[in-house]
């Protein structure tokens, strides 16, 4: 994924840089370098992987809360990715798993 995105971005940057002024080019390269370094230093989990992490954490109570949490974190196409019946069932089982709650003393 990263290489294809980088190639597409590089092509678009080349076209844009030819017509942009120096300030615009500097801002663009600064943004691209920042995004590139963020991905290298701390790669973001895939949407399904992150959905399972959130479901296990106990931070959500249903699939709708999970979708909102993922959208808030910046993931795109959350509804489409989490639309499968089997996936939703697995996530709901994790969300409602009584073993992950701490016993009351």
Could you walk me through the main structural features you see in this protein, from its secondary elements to its overall organization?
With 105 residues, the chain is mainly α. The chain has two domains: 40 residues; 54 residues, no CATH class. Helix content is 70%, strand content 0%. The protein contains six helices and no strands. Helix 3 runs parallel beside helix 6. The relative contact order is 0.09. The model has no long low-confidence stretch (mean pLDDT 76).
Strands, count: 0
Tally the structural domains. Answer: 2
Termini gap: 48 Å
Largest sheet entry: none
Low-confidence spans: pLDDT under 50, at least 5 residues? none
Bin the helical content: over 70%
Class of secondary structure makeup: mainly alpha
What proportion strand?
A: under 5%
Q: Give me the oligomer status.
A: single chain
The whole-angstrom Rg is 20 Å
Shape: elongated
Order of helices and strands: HHHHHH
Q: What's the overall average pLDDT, rounded?
A: 76
Give the count of helical stretches.
6
């Amino acid at each position: 994924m990263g290489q294809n995105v980088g190639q597409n971005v590089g092509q678009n940057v080349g076209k844009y840089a030819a017509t942009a002024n120096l300030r615009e080019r500097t801002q663009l390269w600064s943004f691209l370098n920042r995004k590139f370094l963020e991905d290298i230093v701390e790669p973001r989990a895939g949407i399904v992987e992150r959905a399972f992490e959130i479901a296990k954490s106990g931070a959500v109570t249903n699939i709708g809360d999970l979708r909102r949490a993922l959208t808030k974190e910046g993931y795109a196409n959350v509804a489409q990715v989490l639309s499968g019946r089997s996936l939703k069932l697995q996530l709901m089982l994790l969300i409602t798993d009584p073993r992950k709650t701490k016993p009351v003393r």
